[in-house]
Design brief:
5 helices, 4 strands, alpha+beta, 123 residues
Length: 123
């Protein structure tokens, strides 16, 4: 897990590590979203969340069970307890920081749960 809390410079840090993120080197991340501090550096909370989403991450208010947070829910035995957050709006007040958890799940790549993999190997 990557923890990123650089006092408003999170957008700059994410832009600097785009290739690393796109390569899947980071599977989970915890970030503080503080819109006021981000705006002081020329970014915003929504822009930060969109950068994560565009890099293949789903956003959550708490760290989900990683088995539950797989890319596709269609092979899940039960529905997920946590729905991903929208990257297009703030999930707290602009003047107060809040944490988000990001789980890498690039589009076009299907993760499956252990049960699905075991069934596929048996066939």
């Amino acid at each position: 897990m990557m923890k990123l809390d650089v006092e408003g410079f999170e957008c700059n840090a994410l832009r600097g590590m785009r290739r690393l993120l796109a390569a899947g080197a980071v599977q989970t991340a915890k970030l503080e979203v503080f819109d006021a501090a981000l705006r002081a550096q020329g970014c915003s909370g929504v822009e930060l969340q969109r950068l994560l989403s565009e890099s293949g991450f789903r956003l959550y208010p708490t760290l989900p069970d990683l088995e539950e947070a797989r890319c596709h829910w269609s092979d899940a035995a039960s529905p997920p307890r946590h729905k991903p957050l929208s990257p297009n709006r703030l999930h707290g007040q602009a003047e107060f920081p809040y944490n988000i958890y990001a789980v890498y799940c690039p589009r076009g790549r299907r993760r499956t749960n252990r049960r699905s993999r075991a069934l596929a190997q048996d066939q």
